[in-house]
C-alpha cells in the first residue's frame, strides 16, 4: 500500500479508531510484560535473599568450630621428596583454584577457567612490557601477574582481598621463581605512598564485586600514570542503549554457566555506557573498547598525567 492510500485510509474515522485501538492494545501488552518481568525479578531477589539467610544461619551454627583458612595436611617426609613432588602436593592439596595456571612445566592447577584460552586473547595485555611497573588488581593466583613479568615488566605487584588467593599466588610464585609480589590488600587502599605509581594497571573481573565502584576507580586513578586495562561483565538494556545505567544486587546473584552457583559478592552490573562514563568521570582519557565478544567488556584508557611508574619513596616511611 502506498503512503498516499494510507493517508486516505487514516481519514476514515473507523479506520483511525481501529488503528488507535490496536496501538492501545500493544502499549497495554508491553506494560503487562514489563510488570511480569519486574515481578519475576522481585521474586528472584527474594529467593536469593532467603538462600543467603539460610547459608548464613548454617555458618553461624558451625562458626565456633570453623577457621578462615583451609587447613592443608602436611606432606610426609617432605624433606626427602623431589622439589617437583613437593610443589605438586601443594597444588593438589588446595581445594579450589580460580585460574588454571602452569605452575611448573607440564603441571597445571585445577582452575575452573583457563585464561590462556578465555581471557588472554581478548584482554589487551601488551606484548612488550619492558621496564614497566604493572599493578594487577584482583590478581587471584597470579596468571596475569606472571604473564606481565614474562613480557618484560621490571616489577609486578598484585593485590587481592581474599587471603587464600594470595596463598595460592605464593605457591606459584615460589615454584616459578618469580619476582612478582602479591599483597593482601583492598583496591580502596591504593595510594601512591603505599605502592607507588604504575605504567600499567590491570583491572580485570573486579568491578562488579565492589560495593563502592566509583571510589575504587578514584583510587586506581591515583596510582595510574600510564594505561588502564578495564574488564567487567555488563548488563545491557536495549531500551536505554547509550544511556549510563546500572543494576544493583543487594544480596548477590546466581552465576555460572547454568546459574548453578550462588555468588554473594556481586553487587553491581553496569551497561557499557555507564562503564565508559565512570572511567571518564575520574579522568581517564582516550577510552577505547577493545573487546566485546566473547568476553565483554574490555576498555583501554590512559591517565592524563603520563609519567614513568615509580615505587614509593622509602625515605618517607610509607608503611609507618
Structural summary, described in words:
The protein has helices at residues 3-9, 13-62, 83-93, 115-118, 143-150, 163-176, 192-195, 213-223, 272-281; strands at residues 102-104, 107-108, 133-137, 155-160, 181-184, 198-204, 224-231, 246-248, 253-255, 261-263, 268-270, 285-291, 298-302. The protein is an alpha/beta fold and 320 residues long. The strands form four sheets. A seven-stranded mixed beta sheet has the order 5-4-3-6-7-13-12, with helices on both faces. It has a two-stranded antiparallel ribbon with strand order 1-2. Strands 8-11 form a two-stranded antiparallel sheet. The longest helix has 50 residues, at 13-62. The N and C termini lie far apart (81 Å).
Major sheet strand order: 5-4-3-6-7-13-12
Annotated CATH architecture of the domain at 115-308: 3-Layer(aba) Sandwich
SS strand fraction: 15-25%
Structural class: alpha/beta
Oligomer, anyone? single chain
Mean pLDDT: 87
**Helix run count:** 9
- What would you give as the CATH superfamily of the domain at 115-308? Vaccinia Virus protein VP39
Poorly predicted regions are none
Task: Identify the notable features of this structure and list them briefly.
seven-stranded mixed β-sheet, single chain, 9 helices, Rossmann fold, 37% helix
Write the layout of secondary structure elements.
Blueprint: H1 3-9, H2 13-62, H3 83-93, E1 102-104, E2 107-108, H4 115-118, E3 133-137, H5 143-150, E4 155-160, H6 163-176, E5 181-184, H7 192-195, E6 198-204, H8 213-223, E7 224-231, E8 246-248, E9 253-255, E10 261-263, E11 268-270, H9 272-281, E12 285-291, E13 298-302
Amino acid at each position: 500500500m502506498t503512503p498516499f492510500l494510507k493517508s486516505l485510509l487514516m481519514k476514515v474515522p473507523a479506520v483511525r479508531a481501529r488503528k488507535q485501538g490496536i496501538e492501545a492494545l500493544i502499549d497495554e501488552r508491553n506494560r503487562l510484560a514489563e510488570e511480569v518481568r519486574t515481578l519475576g525479578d522481585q521474586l528472584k531477589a527474594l529467593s536469593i535473599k532467603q538462600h543467603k539467610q539460610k547459608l548464613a544461619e548454617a555458618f553461624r551454627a558451625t562458626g565456633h568450630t570453623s577457621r578462615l583458612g583451609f587447613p592443608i595436611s602436611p606432606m610426609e617426609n617432605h624433606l626427602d621428596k623431589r622439589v617437583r613432588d613437593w610443589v605438586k602436593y601443594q597444588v593438589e592439596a588446595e581445594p579450589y583454584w580460580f585460574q588454571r595456571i602452569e605452575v611448573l612445566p607440564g603441571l597445571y592447577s585445577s582452575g575452573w577457567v583457563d585464561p590462556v584460552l578465555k581471557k588472554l586473547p581478548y584482554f589487551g595485555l601488551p606484548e612488550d612490557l619492558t621496564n614497566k611497573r604493572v599493578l594487577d588488581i584482583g590478581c587471584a593466583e597470579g596468571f596475569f601477574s606472571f604473564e606481565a613479568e614474562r613480557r618484560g615488566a621490571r616489577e609486578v605487584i598484585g593485590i587481592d582481598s581474599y587471603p587464600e588467593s594470595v596463598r595460592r599466588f605464593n605457591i606459584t610464585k615460589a615454584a616459578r621463581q618469580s619476582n612478582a609480589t602479591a599483597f593482601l590488600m583492598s583496591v580502596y587502599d591504593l595510594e601512591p605512598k603505599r605502592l607507588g605509581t604504575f605504567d600499567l594497571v590491570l583491572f580485570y573481573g573486579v568491578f562488579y564485586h565492589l560495593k563502592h565502584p566509583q571510589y575504587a576507580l578514584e583510587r586506581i586513578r591515583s596510582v595510574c600514570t600510564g594505561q588502564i586495562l578495564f574488564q567487567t561483565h555488563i548488563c545491557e538494556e536495549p531500551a536505554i542503549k547509550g544511556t549510563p545505567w546500572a543494576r544493583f544486587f543487594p544480596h548477590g546473584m546466581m552465576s555460572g554457566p547454568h546459574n548453578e552457583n550462588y555468588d554473594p559478592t556481586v553487587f553491581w552490573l553496569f551497561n557499557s555506557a555507564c562503564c565508559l562514563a565512570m572511567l571518564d568521570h575520574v579522568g581517564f582519557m582516550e577510552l577505547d573498547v577493545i573487546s566485546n565478544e566473547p568476553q565483554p567488556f574490555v576498555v583501554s584508557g590512559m591517565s592524563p598525567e603520563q609519567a614513568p611508574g615509580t615505587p614509593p619513596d622509602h625515605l618517607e616511611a610509607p608503611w609507618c
